Amino acid sequence: MIDFSMGVLKLDKNRKYLAMLAPSFVTMYEYPSIVYKLRMLGFDKVTEVTFGAKMTNLFYYSFLKDKLEKGEKKTWIASPCPTLVTFIRTKYPHLVENLVPVHSPVGCMALICKKFYPNHKIVFIGPCLTKKLEAQELGTIDAVLTFKELNDWMVEENIPEEVTDSKYHISFDKFYNDYTKIYPTSGGLSDTLNGSKILSDKDILIMEGIPNLVKVFDQFKDGVYKNYKFLDILNCMGGCINGPGMFGTSSIEERRKRIFKYRDYAWRYEKDLGRTGYRVHVEDLDFHRDF
Ligand code: SF4
Q1: Is 248 a domain residue?
Q2: Which of 3, 128, 156, 192 is a good FRET partner for 59, with 20 to 30 A between their CA atoms?
Q3: Is 128 in the pocket of ligand 1 (CB under 6 A)?
Q4: What average pLDDT score do residues 5-27 get?
Q5: Rg of the chain taking only CA atoms, in angstroms
Q6: Residues 104 and 110: beta-carbon distance below 8 Å
Q7: Total structural domains in the chain?
Q8: Tell me, what's the pLDDT at 201?
Q9: Can you give the residue range of the structural domain that contains 35?
Q10: 289 lies in a domain?
Q11: Where does the pLDDT of residue 271 fall: very low under 50, low under 70, confident under 90, or very high at 90 and above?
Q12: Is it the case that residue 7 has pLDDT exceeding 60?
């Protein structure tokens, strides 16, 4: 177990560690200097969760396609947000069977990292507190840090604001994906699903916030909510870019802009660097998850 006391990780010098960074990082930190900083903290590998998000989406696509083609009448509920999963399990247990049975991007990425780096300890760093619960349940992630906790740790270790030491690799390790970099924004899942052949805009409800969602869950009838086929829902207003583990005062709109700018940058400059993850890399992995 990793020693994680007072919000500061103590890494064992005799072990290797891998950081899985949530794509919302770019709203809080500069890229690529954050990758340097994580390597300075002691991470041997630094990956981005975007390839995990791609695999989550590929599973969603084939799952929803199959169900829709069979004419199954159900409103399916997105399951990457552990706060909502816990809420549904506790308050609306009859809707658990509506959750799409697949790992979240973090859960998928942990399986991918375990495959490629089986001896590394895995640390997820992101905007979310309840990912700590998800990690405990899955058992594939050794520790979860919020961005606030990462800041405390960097202060403790005297990591400078500007880091350009050439002995540290500048970029992420394998594997990453470009188009899922917008995943942490509101509607990010359905926007990156490439699902226009199976779902139209009117089939999808995008919504955030438990007070809003309670009204939706209360109106489910026999597993169906109105005419919707899929609910792309999250707990935090605006999406994970507004998670409880974020810091600073930037607005949701400013954070969205940074996310899209980063996605566009990756499209332009980071393609073909040999770090893009493809389905063929992980064909042997099972991303199914029962709730
Ligand atoms: S919406 Fe909020 S609670 Fe849900 S996964 Fe994102 S950061 Fe966590």
Answers
A1: no
A2: 128
A3: yes
A4: 87
A5: 19
A6: no
A7: 1
A8: 96
A9: 17-240+254-275
A10: no
A11: confident
A12: no
Q: Is the pLDDT of residue 6 over 80?
A: no
Q: Is 190 in the pocket of ligand 1 (CB under 6 A)?
A: no
DSSP-derived secondary structure for the chain? --EEETTEEE--TTS-EEEEE-GGGGGTS-TTHHHHHHHHHT-SEEEETHHHHHHHHHHHHHHHHHHHHTT----EE----HHHHHHHHHH-GGGGGGB--B--HHHHHHHHHHHH-TTSEEEEEES-STHHHHHHHH-S-SEEEEHHHHHHHHHHTT--SS---TTS--SPPS-B-SGGGGTTSTTHHHHTS--TTT--GGGEEEEE-HHHHHHHHHT-BTTB-TT-SEEEEESSTTSGGG-TT--S---HHHHHHHHHHHHHHHHHHSTTSS-B--GGGGTT---B---
Ligand 1 midpoint to CA 282 (Å):
26
**Which of ligand 1's atoms lies nearest the C-alpha of 239?**
1
Query: Which tokens go with 136?
Result: 């405990």
| Contact by Cβ (8 Å): 160, 180 | no
Tell me, yes or no, whether 180 lies in a domain: yes
At residue 274, the pLDDT reads 81
- CB of 127 closer than 6 A to ligand 1? yes
- 7 inside domain: no
**Statement: residue 1 has pLDDT above 60:** no
* Mean residue pLDDT across the chain: 93
Average pLDDT of the residues in 104-122: 97
* pLDDT tens per residue, range 164-215: 666 666 788 999 899 999 999 999 999 999 999 999 999 999 999 999 999 9
Q: What is the mean pLDDT of residues 67-74?
A: 96
Q: Which residue CA neighbors atom 5 of ligand 1 most closely?
A: 81
Going by alpha carbons, the residue nearest to atom 6 of ligand 1 is: 240
